Amino acid sequence: MRGASQAFFHTLRKIRAKNFTIRRVPASLPKKCAGAYTDDVKRLLFTGGGSAGHVVPNLAVMQELCGTYDVAYMGTDGIERGLAGAFSCPYYIVNCPKLVRAATPRNLTVPFRLAAARRKALDILRRETFDLVFSKGGYVSYPAVWAAHRLKVPVLTHESDFSPGLCTRMIAGKCRYVLTSFPETAGRFRNGRCVGSPMRRELFRGDRLAARAKYGFSGRKPVLLVLGGGSGSRALNEAVRSNLAALLLRFDILHLCGKGNRSERTARGYVQLEYERDMGAAYACCDLALSRAGSNAVFELIALKKPALLVPLAHASRGDQAQNAAYFARKDLCAVLDEGQLDTLPSALLCLYGNAKIRAALERDHTVSGTQAIADVIRSVIG
Question: Taking a C-beta distance cutoff of 8 angstroms, is the pair 153, 144 a contact?
């Protein structure tokens, strides 16, 4: 009898909490998100991180849905926390361990730290009810997906690369759909669906003349955009600086070098930035680009019709960048340079700039942002 009474009062407390709890709207919440914080709006939890490539696409989807749904984010106390902070949405810290691709004693502790991360994610999802979890991959996303599956919350994940990463392979069976950027990748999963690569709206709104004025370029020379700010891009930064005199004979250069990678070297027509929030302006001002072969950046360059010289990351990678680059090169949508050949960078960029075949292929290509398609899938799943 006593057990029945306890169960009754426990249920009553849950009903009262559900009906009378008021959720506070953060004072700094962007105006576009303010309408989402009401009790009759469905809630979405986004997750993914470890690198900007796992976070920025999430932000594009959040931008599309914010104001219609109540959005929140789960990640570590790393790069994703800072990037997601622009939305002033609830942020839940779950520090998931990363499996190092090498024999190291630290990997022996991964199962124990992963179990702790899963328990914490499960506690959060039990306390905060969500209608759907959207994962952009990376080791950071695993605890949220595991907890959602345990609680029978629908899960979607998106894989950017041509070859699926470890986390995507681990969580695919827990997801309603595995959304992909490449059609061939979707075919590897029974629940795969190609939707394209999510991109932010502002990338397509840059003004060429205003952008060139912003960076101080005269317009007399073509502008080379160097995307050297990500992890593993030190080789690109060094190659550009060691060939700077030769490159500046033909190009003005906007060099996004990454935090802490700025050089003291200056020259007319050479602009260095550690980070650029307004990537719409950076893309608008350029005539060609030098980049690693991360899927998100390459899809953006192709959608914007920018010829690109791709240098796939050679080390500390599962080979996904080489596969991405080879896929686009087969379609004549880019040029590819091996990292070991960076001493030929000036001639490779001149060949790219004069490559009519690549320019024609870019003009024929129909790549568009996949953000709307992803938002449509989310709406179809949760109503």
Answer: no
346 close to 243: Cβ distance less than 8 angstroms: yes
The token pair that represents 201 in the structure block:
């709206």
pLDDT band at 1 (very low <50, low <70, confident <90, very high): very low
Q: What is the pLDDT of residues 44-74, one digit of tens each?
A: 999 998 888 889 999 999 999 988 999 999 9
CA dist 344 → 125, 340, 359 (Å): 52, 9, 21
Region for residue 148 given its phi and psi (left: phi exceeds 0; alpha: psi -120 to 50; beta: otherwise): alpha
Structure tokens given for 139: 């080791």
| CA 231 to each of CA 243, 261, 286: distance values in angstroms, whole numbers, following the listed order | 21, 11, 22
User: Is residue 383 helix, strand or coil?
Assistant: coil
Helix axes 371-382, 56-65, angle to 10 degrees: 60
The 10 Å Cβ neighbour count of residue 269 is 20
Hey, how many other C-beta atoms are within 10 angstroms of the C-beta on 373? 15
Largest CA distance in the chain: 88
The DSSP string of 141-174 is GHHHHHHHHHTT--EEEEE-SSSPPHHHHHHGGG
**What backbone phi and psi angles, to 5 degrees, belong to 95?**
-85, 95
Of 356, 381, 350, 277, residue with least CA distance to 65: 381
What the chain holds in terms of domains, given with CATH numbers, is: 20-194 (3.40.50.2000), 203-364 (3.40.50.2000)
Q: pTM, whole model, 2 decimals?
A: 0.85
Asked whether residue 289 carries a pLDDT value surpassing 50, the answer given is yes
Q: What are phi and psi of 193, to 5 degrees?
A: -150, 120
Q: What share of the chain is helix, strand, coil (3-state, %, to 5)?
A: 50, 15, 40
How far is Cα 84 from Cα 134, in angstroms, rounded to an integer? 14
